[in-house]
Write a structure and sequence with these properties.
329 residues; alpha/beta; Alpha-Beta Plaits; six-stranded parallel sheet; four-stranded antiparallel sheet; 55% helix; elongated
């Protein structure tokens, strides 16, 4: 929309010109209000209609001044309107084009479906972690909020295969279905898994009965915000220090230690060694859990546990130590 201050200025100038014209004709020519208003409008708009009454010399001089002022104001208003619509139109076209080019270059990103209250918090965490992601949102105002925050965003229905392809689902590492409707999240999960069976999908559920349906649709994880909130409130009441520790290691930047989920890759120094050997060679603080390729979860794994390709580790350590474990340095 046109900025309110600029629109107010245009309306004020138009009303000022009309008011001055009406008063001028009433005072100089002694015309009634309707005749003065009609003469002012046809003079300012330059439509070329004939004069309502014969004008005196003073009336003609006043008309000249009114035409100059009125045409100037009308030209200014028209220029502002044309500039806004033309520039806005081309800005939107080029903006969308640049956005699509950036999205086309992404690889290993996450697709975030929905930018409501839950989606905004998810985006904030992704941004703080430096994780590339794309937002899909249907509502135009919500899209504007996402782009104003500097996020890559596509406007469209996230249940559409076309929009998912445009978001780069074939190159993505995961998808978050965070819409307010369980039915929409279910349909998104079905579409995403149909296009990429190996894609990791996290889906939001508003009702407990929807959780099982999302699981059957292929969601790898389901989240009920009210349940998470209730558990957190309970844990803050019972074990506040534990919650503070987890928040510090998981969400706070600038602290020495981090809690991280790491996959043992082909370049990882942990490949083919035991937990004890891995800790000795990498200097990591601790391996809290190991999830084997067959899905077995080992909490507090034994030092003799062999680490294999594809194993997932929950580790705590400094950022530098964890980068070494990932094989990125």
């Amino acid at each position: 929309m046109i900025p309110w201050q600029q629109l107010s200025r245009i309306l004020f100038l138009l009303l000022l010109v009309i008011t001055v014209g009406v008063i001028g004709y009433m005072v100089i020519e002694g015309w009634p209000l309707l005749d003065a208003l009609y003469m002012t409008i046809i003079t300012v708009s330059t439509v070329g209609y004939g004069e309502v009454h014969s004008l005196s010399a003073a009336g003609r001089l006043f008309s000249i001044v009114l035409i100059i002022g009125g045409v100037g104001v009308m030209f200014y208003a028209l220029t502002v309107l044309v500039q806004y619509f033309v520039e806005g139109h081309f800005r939107n076209i080029f903006g969308r084009h640049r956005m699509k080019e950036k999205i086309a270059k992404l690889k290993g990103h996450i697709i975030l479906c929905g930018y409501g209250r839950v989606g905004r918090e998810v985006a904030r965490v992704f941004e703080s972690e430096g994780t590339p992601f794309v937002v899909i949102e249907l509502d135009q105002e919500t899209v504007n909020r996402a782009t104003d925050s500097g996020y890559l965003c596509l406007q469209g229905n996230a249940t559409s295969d076309e929009i998912l392809n445009e978001a780069g689902i074939q190159r993505a590492r995961g998808l978050v279905a965070a819409l307010g409707s369980d039915a929409d999240n279910l349909y998104i999960t079905l579409s995403a898994k149909g296009m990429r069976p190996d894609l990791f999908v996290v889906a939001r559920a508003s009702a407990e009965e929807s959780e099982a349906k999302l699981r059957r649709a292929g969601a790898d994880r389901t989240i009920l915000p009210f349940r998470i909130g209730g558990r957190r409130m309970a844990m803050l009441t019972l074990r506040p220090l534990v919650v503070d520790f987890i928040d510090t290691t998981m969400y706070s930047h600038g602290h020495e230690f981090m809690l991280e989920d790491i996959v043992v890759g082909p370049d990882s120094p942990l490949l083919g060694v035991t937990v004890k050997q891995g800790l000795e060679c990498c200097g990591a603080i601790a391996i809290l859990a190991v999830k084997k390729k067959d899905g077995t979860l080992l909490t507090s794994p034994a030092m003799e546990t062999l680490l294999e390709l594809g194993d997932e580790l929950v580790m705590i350590g400094t950022r530098e130590q964890l980068r070494v474990v990932e094989g990125s340095v």
